[in-house]
Structure prediction request, 113 residues.
Amino acid sequence: MKIYKVKVNGKVYEVELESVSENDNKIALSKENNQVSSNTSSDKVVVASPMQGTILSVNVSLNQKVSKGQVLLILEAMKLENEIVSPVDGIVKEIKVSKGTSVNSKQELLIIE
Prediction:
């Protein structure tokens, strides 16, 4: 772990950075909307809600092939429409929400294999 001092607007902040290495278990974090997805031993990727909101539309169906970056769902939060995109290429194996469903932060939305 390395400690750095950063000066912002005249105020000094101490920041600790730690080195992270990739391991066999894949973890994907979409930078666009901070949705969390994790891979289990059977290569299932769980797409979770990045925030509390309401599902406006589900743009995929069961057994549909999806590619990384493809819009899977539209989530409305604080009157903004947020695109939930696929973190990986794969096939939609399970859809756990439908249009109009209220979801919590980190709630599972769908599973991709």
